[in-house]
Amino acid sequence: MLFDLKGVKRRFGAKTALDLPSLKLDEGRPVVFYGPNGSGKTTLLNLLAGLDKPCEGEVRFSGGPLDVTLVEQKPYLFNASLLENTVMGLRYRGVPRSRREALAEPLLKRLGLWDRRDRPCAGFSDGERRRAALARGLILGARALLLDEPMANLDRGYASVVEALITEEAGKPGRTVLTATHDLGQAFRMGADVVYLVEGHLSRVPLWNVFRCEVAASADASVRKALVAPSAEFIVSTEVLGPATVSIDPRDVLLSFQPIDSSALNCLKGRVESASMLGLEVDVVVSAGCRLHAFITPKSMARLGLKPGDEVYATFKASAVQVLG
Protein backbone atom coordinates (compact mmCIF):
# COMPACT_ATOMS: atom_id res chain seq x y z
CA MET A 1 0.00 0.00 0.00
CA LEU A 2 1.47 3.35 -1.07
CA PHE A 3 -1.39 5.74 -0.25
CA ASP A 4 -4.25 5.22 2.17
CA LEU A 5 -7.03 7.83 2.25
CA LYS A 6 -9.70 7.72 4.94
CA GLY A 7 -12.67 10.04 5.29
CA VAL A 8 -11.05 12.65 3.04
CA LYS A 9 -13.05 15.78 2.24
CA ARG A 10 -11.75 18.90 0.53
CA ARG A 11 -13.95 21.96 0.32
CA PHE A 12 -13.42 25.30 -1.36
CA GLY A 13 -15.85 27.64 0.32
CA ALA A 14 -19.27 26.03 0.27
CA LYS A 15 -18.37 23.63 -2.54
CA THR A 16 -17.16 20.12 -1.74
CA ALA A 17 -14.55 19.32 -4.38
CA LEU A 18 -13.66 15.87 -3.04
CA ASP A 19 -15.44 13.40 -0.75
CA LEU A 20 -13.65 10.05 -0.47
CA PRO A 21 -14.69 7.78 2.43
CA SER A 22 -11.89 5.33 1.57
CA LEU A 23 -9.30 4.94 -1.18
CA LYS A 24 -6.25 2.67 -1.15
CA LEU A 25 -3.57 2.84 -3.84
CA ASP A 26 -1.11 -0.02 -4.13
CA GLU A 27 2.61 0.48 -4.70
CA GLY A 28 3.89 -0.58 -8.09
CA ARG A 29 0.46 -0.52 -9.75
CA PRO A 30 -0.14 2.26 -12.33
CA VAL A 31 -3.36 4.13 -11.62
CA VAL A 32 -5.41 6.43 -13.83
CA PHE A 33 -7.84 8.93 -12.32
CA TYR A 34 -10.59 9.46 -14.86
CA GLY A 35 -13.60 11.76 -14.89
CA PRO A 36 -15.10 14.87 -16.47
CA ASN A 37 -13.87 18.40 -15.78
CA GLY A 38 -14.55 19.35 -12.18
CA SER A 39 -14.61 15.76 -10.96
CA GLY A 40 -11.80 16.30 -8.44
CA LYS A 41 -8.84 14.75 -10.27
CA THR A 42 -6.44 17.68 -9.80
CA THR A 43 -7.58 18.21 -6.21
CA LEU A 44 -6.79 14.57 -5.47
CA LEU A 45 -3.33 14.80 -7.05
CA ASN A 46 -2.53 17.89 -4.96
CA LEU A 47 -3.52 16.04 -1.79
CA LEU A 48 -1.39 13.02 -2.71
CA ALA A 49 1.57 15.32 -3.47
CA GLY A 50 1.28 17.03 -0.11
CA LEU A 51 0.65 20.41 -1.73
CA ASP A 52 -2.77 20.61 -0.11
CA LYS A 53 -4.44 19.23 3.00
CA PRO A 54 -7.93 17.79 3.42
CA CYS A 55 -10.53 19.67 5.42
CA GLU A 56 -11.42 16.33 7.02
CA GLY A 57 -9.80 12.90 7.13
CA GLU A 58 -6.23 11.89 6.41
CA VAL A 59 -3.91 10.97 3.57
CA ARG A 60 -1.21 8.47 4.54
CA PHE A 61 1.94 7.76 2.55
CA SER A 62 3.40 4.36 3.38
CA GLY A 63 6.99 3.40 3.98
CA GLY A 64 8.88 6.47 5.12
CA PRO A 65 9.04 10.15 4.14
CA LEU A 66 6.85 11.42 1.30
CA ASP A 67 8.74 10.79 -1.95
CA VAL A 68 6.54 12.24 -4.67
CA THR A 69 7.00 14.22 -7.87
CA LEU A 70 4.01 16.07 -9.36
CA VAL A 71 3.97 17.23 -12.98
CA GLU A 72 1.17 19.80 -13.16
CA GLN A 73 -1.13 20.49 -16.08
CA LYS A 74 0.13 24.08 -16.23
CA PRO A 75 3.70 23.67 -14.97
CA TYR A 76 5.85 26.41 -13.53
CA LEU A 77 9.32 26.58 -15.06
CA PHE A 78 12.20 28.52 -13.54
CA ASN A 79 13.70 31.57 -15.27
CA ALA A 80 16.59 29.48 -16.54
CA SER A 81 17.65 27.31 -19.46
CA LEU A 82 15.87 24.08 -20.29
CA LEU A 83 18.81 22.01 -19.05
CA GLU A 84 18.96 23.90 -15.76
CA ASN A 85 15.21 23.41 -15.28
CA THR A 86 15.50 19.71 -15.99
CA VAL A 87 18.30 18.99 -13.52
CA MET A 88 17.32 21.49 -10.80
CA GLY A 89 16.05 18.78 -8.47
CA LEU A 90 19.18 16.68 -8.94
CA ARG A 91 21.30 19.74 -8.20
CA TYR A 92 19.56 20.28 -4.87
CA ARG A 93 20.12 16.60 -4.09
CA GLY A 94 23.84 17.06 -4.54
CA VAL A 95 24.23 15.07 -7.76
CA PRO A 96 27.47 16.12 -9.56
CA ARG A 97 27.08 18.26 -12.68
CA SER A 98 28.54 15.69 -15.06
CA ARG A 99 26.13 13.07 -13.75
CA ARG A 100 23.18 15.47 -14.01
CA GLU A 101 23.84 16.14 -17.68
CA ALA A 102 24.44 12.46 -18.42
CA LEU A 103 20.98 11.67 -17.02
CA ALA A 104 19.31 14.58 -18.81
CA GLU A 105 20.71 14.05 -22.30
CA PRO A 106 18.93 10.81 -23.33
CA LEU A 107 15.69 11.98 -21.77
CA LEU A 108 15.68 15.36 -23.51
CA LYS A 109 16.73 13.77 -26.80
CA ARG A 110 13.83 11.36 -26.64
CA LEU A 111 11.43 14.24 -25.95
CA GLY A 112 12.85 16.21 -28.89
CA LEU A 113 14.27 18.97 -26.67
CA TRP A 114 18.02 18.36 -26.50
CA ASP A 115 18.80 20.93 -29.21
CA ARG A 116 17.04 23.55 -27.06
CA ARG A 117 18.83 22.67 -23.81
CA ASP A 118 20.63 26.02 -23.53
CA ARG A 119 17.61 28.16 -24.35
CA PRO A 120 15.47 29.83 -21.68
CA CYS A 121 12.07 28.21 -21.22
CA ALA A 122 10.24 31.54 -21.27
CA GLY A 123 9.74 31.36 -25.04
CA PHE A 124 8.61 27.74 -25.18
CA SER A 125 5.22 26.69 -26.55
CA ASP A 126 2.68 25.01 -24.27
CA GLY A 127 3.63 21.60 -25.65
CA GLU A 128 7.34 22.23 -25.12
CA ARG A 129 6.70 23.39 -21.58
CA ARG A 130 4.76 20.20 -20.87
CA ARG A 131 7.60 18.05 -22.20
CA ALA A 132 10.16 20.08 -20.23
CA ALA A 133 8.18 19.64 -17.02
CA LEU A 134 7.80 15.93 -17.69
CA ALA A 135 11.58 15.56 -18.15
CA ARG A 136 12.15 17.37 -14.84
CA GLY A 137 9.69 15.03 -13.11
CA LEU A 138 10.96 11.81 -14.66
CA ILE A 139 14.63 12.45 -13.94
CA LEU A 140 14.13 12.48 -10.16
CA GLY A 141 12.98 8.87 -9.95
CA ALA A 142 10.60 9.42 -7.01
CA ARG A 143 8.61 6.48 -5.65
CA ALA A 144 5.38 8.13 -6.78
CA LEU A 145 5.12 10.08 -10.03
CA LEU A 146 1.91 12.10 -10.28
CA LEU A 147 0.91 13.37 -13.73
CA ASP A 148 -1.92 15.81 -14.38
CA GLU A 149 -3.14 15.50 -17.99
CA PRO A 150 0.35 14.70 -19.37
CA MET A 151 -0.90 14.43 -22.97
CA ALA A 152 -2.52 17.87 -23.09
CA ASN A 153 -1.18 20.34 -25.68
CA LEU A 154 0.99 17.69 -27.36
CA ASP A 155 0.87 16.94 -31.05
CA ARG A 156 0.26 13.35 -32.08
CA GLY A 157 3.94 12.48 -32.61
CA TYR A 158 5.10 13.60 -29.19
CA ALA A 159 1.96 12.26 -27.50
CA SER A 160 3.01 8.74 -28.49
CA VAL A 161 6.56 9.36 -27.22
CA VAL A 162 5.28 10.67 -23.89
CA GLU A 163 2.86 7.77 -23.50
CA ALA A 164 5.67 5.29 -24.16
CA LEU A 165 7.85 7.01 -21.53
CA ILE A 166 5.07 6.95 -18.96
CA THR A 167 4.37 3.28 -19.64
CA GLU A 168 8.07 2.45 -19.20
CA GLU A 169 8.21 4.39 -15.92
CA ALA A 170 5.13 2.54 -14.68
CA GLY A 171 6.93 -0.76 -15.25
CA LYS A 172 10.05 0.10 -13.24
CA PRO A 173 10.55 -1.57 -9.83
CA GLY A 174 9.79 0.72 -6.90
CA ARG A 175 7.97 3.19 -9.14
CA THR A 176 4.26 4.04 -9.00
CA VAL A 177 2.71 6.27 -11.67
CA LEU A 178 -0.63 7.93 -10.97
CA THR A 179 -2.15 9.86 -13.87
CA ALA A 180 -5.15 12.14 -14.23
CA THR A 181 -6.32 12.00 -17.83
CA HIS A 182 -9.27 12.37 -20.20
CA ASP A 183 -7.81 9.59 -22.36
CA LEU A 184 -9.15 6.40 -20.86
CA GLY A 185 -7.64 4.44 -23.73
CA GLN A 186 -4.26 5.26 -22.20
CA ALA A 187 -5.26 3.41 -19.04
CA PHE A 188 -6.09 0.27 -21.01
CA ARG A 189 -2.87 0.47 -23.00
CA MET A 190 -0.83 0.83 -19.79
CA GLY A 191 -2.69 -1.92 -17.99
CA ALA A 192 -3.50 0.61 -15.26
CA ASP A 193 -6.13 0.43 -12.56
CA VAL A 194 -8.82 3.06 -13.14
CA VAL A 195 -10.33 5.22 -10.40
CA TYR A 196 -13.51 6.84 -11.73
CA LEU A 197 -14.41 10.23 -10.26
CA VAL A 198 -17.51 12.36 -10.76
CA GLU A 199 -18.36 15.51 -8.82
CA GLY A 200 -15.74 14.64 -6.21
CA HIS A 201 -17.07 11.15 -5.52
CA LEU A 202 -15.87 7.69 -6.48
CA SER A 203 -18.07 6.01 -9.06
CA ARG A 204 -18.65 2.27 -9.09
CA VAL A 205 -19.16 2.21 -12.87
CA PRO A 206 -16.95 3.33 -15.77
CA LEU A 207 -17.66 6.93 -16.66
CA TRP A 208 -18.13 6.58 -20.39
CA ASN A 209 -21.83 7.40 -20.42
CA VAL A 210 -22.10 10.43 -18.13
CA PHE A 211 -24.92 12.93 -18.58
CA ARG A 212 -26.15 15.98 -16.75
CA CYS A 213 -29.93 15.75 -16.61
CA GLU A 214 -33.18 16.72 -14.97
CA VAL A 215 -34.93 13.91 -13.08
CA ALA A 216 -38.73 14.17 -13.03
CA ALA A 217 -41.56 12.06 -11.64
CA SER A 218 -43.41 9.60 -13.86
CA ALA A 219 -46.78 7.87 -13.79
CA ASP A 220 -45.10 4.82 -12.26
CA ALA A 221 -44.08 5.75 -8.71
CA SER A 222 -41.31 3.13 -8.67
CA VAL A 223 -39.33 4.81 -11.44
CA ARG A 224 -38.56 8.30 -12.70
CA LYS A 225 -37.56 9.96 -15.95
CA ALA A 226 -34.16 11.52 -16.60
CA LEU A 227 -34.11 14.00 -19.48
CA VAL A 228 -30.50 13.85 -20.72
CA ALA A 229 -31.05 15.61 -24.06
CA PRO A 230 -33.99 17.18 -25.91
CA SER A 231 -34.65 13.87 -27.68
CA ALA A 232 -33.23 11.40 -25.14
CA GLU A 233 -34.95 10.29 -21.96
CA PHE A 234 -33.94 7.46 -19.59
CA ILE A 235 -36.15 5.57 -17.16
CA VAL A 236 -34.25 5.41 -13.86
CA SER A 237 -34.76 3.85 -10.45
CA THR A 238 -34.12 6.59 -7.90
CA GLU A 239 -35.64 8.83 -5.27
CA VAL A 240 -33.75 11.85 -6.60
CA LEU A 241 -35.67 14.70 -8.22
CA GLY A 242 -34.29 17.74 -10.02
CA PRO A 243 -30.80 18.34 -11.45
CA ALA A 244 -28.55 15.27 -11.33
CA THR A 245 -25.73 13.40 -13.04
CA VAL A 246 -26.38 9.90 -14.36
CA SER A 247 -23.95 7.25 -15.57
CA ILE A 248 -24.38 3.91 -17.36
CA ASP A 249 -21.79 1.15 -17.50
CA PRO A 250 -21.15 0.50 -21.23
CA ARG A 251 -21.20 -3.22 -20.49
CA ASP A 252 -24.85 -2.89 -19.44
CA VAL A 253 -25.91 -1.53 -22.85
CA LEU A 254 -27.17 -4.26 -25.20
CA LEU A 255 -27.22 -3.69 -28.95
CA SER A 256 -29.61 -5.31 -31.42
CA PHE A 257 -31.13 -4.71 -34.84
CA GLN A 258 -34.66 -5.24 -33.47
CA PRO A 259 -36.21 -4.27 -30.12
CA ILE A 260 -35.42 -6.85 -27.44
CA ASP A 261 -38.33 -8.50 -25.64
CA SER A 262 -37.17 -8.08 -22.05
CA SER A 263 -37.98 -6.39 -18.74
CA ALA A 264 -35.51 -3.57 -19.50
CA LEU A 265 -37.35 -0.25 -19.50
CA ASN A 266 -34.91 1.65 -21.72
CA CYS A 267 -34.77 0.93 -25.46
CA LEU A 268 -33.36 3.77 -27.57
CA LYS A 269 -33.28 3.71 -31.35
CA GLY A 270 -30.14 5.14 -32.95
CA ARG A 271 -27.31 4.71 -35.45
CA VAL A 272 -23.78 3.38 -35.02
CA GLU A 273 -21.28 6.24 -35.18
CA SER A 274 -18.08 4.25 -34.72
CA ALA A 275 -16.58 1.02 -33.44
CA SER A 276 -13.02 0.68 -32.14
CA MET A 277 -10.99 -1.79 -30.13
CA LEU A 278 -10.46 -0.85 -26.49
CA GLY A 279 -8.35 -3.43 -24.70
CA LEU A 280 -10.11 -6.76 -25.24
CA GLU A 281 -13.49 -5.22 -26.06
CA VAL A 282 -15.05 -3.18 -28.86
CA ASP A 283 -16.33 0.30 -27.97
CA VAL A 284 -19.41 0.93 -30.11
CA VAL A 285 -20.71 4.50 -30.09
CA VAL A 286 -24.41 4.88 -30.87
CA SER A 287 -26.12 8.20 -31.61
CA ALA A 288 -29.59 7.94 -30.06
CA GLY A 289 -30.47 11.48 -29.09
CA CYS A 290 -27.27 11.31 -27.03
CA ARG A 291 -23.98 9.52 -27.59
CA LEU A 292 -24.05 6.11 -25.90
CA HIS A 293 -21.04 3.82 -25.55
CA ALA A 294 -21.60 0.06 -25.51
CA PHE A 295 -18.78 -2.42 -24.85
CA ILE A 296 -19.15 -5.74 -26.66
CA THR A 297 -16.79 -8.61 -27.45
CA PRO A 298 -15.14 -8.93 -30.86
CA LYS A 299 -17.10 -12.18 -31.28
CA SER A 300 -20.40 -10.37 -30.74
CA MET A 301 -19.27 -7.61 -33.10
CA ALA A 302 -18.56 -10.17 -35.83
CA ARG A 303 -21.81 -12.04 -35.21
CA LEU A 304 -23.87 -8.85 -35.46
CA GLY A 305 -21.84 -7.49 -38.37
CA LEU A 306 -22.15 -3.97 -36.99
CA LYS A 307 -20.75 -1.10 -39.01
CA PRO A 308 -21.03 2.71 -38.92
CA GLY A 309 -24.40 3.89 -40.19
CA ASP A 310 -26.32 0.78 -39.08
CA GLU A 311 -29.63 1.41 -37.33
CA VAL A 312 -29.67 -0.32 -33.94
CA TYR A 313 -31.49 -0.42 -30.63
CA ALA A 314 -29.63 0.26 -27.37
CA THR A 315 -31.30 -1.49 -24.44
CA PHE A 316 -30.53 -1.19 -20.73
CA LYS A 317 -32.34 -1.57 -17.41
CA ALA A 318 -33.49 1.31 -15.23
CA SER A 319 -31.34 -0.13 -12.44
CA ALA A 320 -28.27 0.10 -14.71
CA VAL A 321 -28.50 3.91 -14.61
CA GLN A 322 -26.50 5.20 -11.65
CA VAL A 323 -27.92 8.47 -10.36
CA LEU A 324 -25.22 10.51 -8.64
CA GLY A 325 -27.36 13.41 -7.48
Give the SSE layout.
Elements: E1 3-12, E2 15-25, E3 31-34, H1 41-48, E4 56-61, E5 68-71, H2 82-92, H3 97-110, H4 126-138, E6 144-148, H5 156-170, E7 176-181, H6 184-190, E8 193-198, E9 201-202, E10 209-217, E11 224-229, E12 232-236, E13 242-248, E14 254-256, E15 266-278, E16 281-287, E17 291-296, H7 298-304, E18 311-316, E19 321-323
Parallel strand pairs: 3-7, 3-8, 5-6, 6-7
Antiparallel strand pairs: 1-2, 1-4, 8-9, 10-11, 10-13, 11-12, 13-19, 14-18, 15-16, 15-18, 16-17
Structure keywords:
single chain, six-stranded mixed beta sheet, globular
Strand portion: 35-45%
The main sheet comes to: 6 strands, mixed
What is the H/E string?
A: EEEHEEHHHEHEHEEEEEEEEEEHEE
Class derived from helix and strand content: alpha+beta
Overall pLDDT score: 91
Q: Given the C-alpha coordinates, what overall shape results?
A: globular
Number of strands: 19
| Major β-sheet strand ordering | 5-6-7-3-8-9
Give the end-to-end Cα distance, rounded to a whole number of Å: 31 Å
- The parts where pLDDT drops under 50 for at least 5 residues are none
Evaluate the radius of gyration.
23 Å
What this model shows, in words?
It is a single chain. Helix 2 (82-92) packs across helix 3 (97-110) and helix 2 (82-92) runs parallel beside helix 4. The protein is built from 7 helices and 19 strands. It is globular and about 75 Å long. The longest helix has 15 residues, at 156-170. With 325 residues, it is of the alpha+beta class. Strand 11 and strand 12 form a beta hairpin. The model has no long low-confidence stretch (mean pLDDT 91). Helices cover 23% and strands 37% of the residues. The strands form 4 sheets. The chain has a 6-stranded mixed beta sheet, sandwiched between helices. A 5-stranded antiparallel beta sheet has the order 12-11-10-13-19, with no helix packed on it.
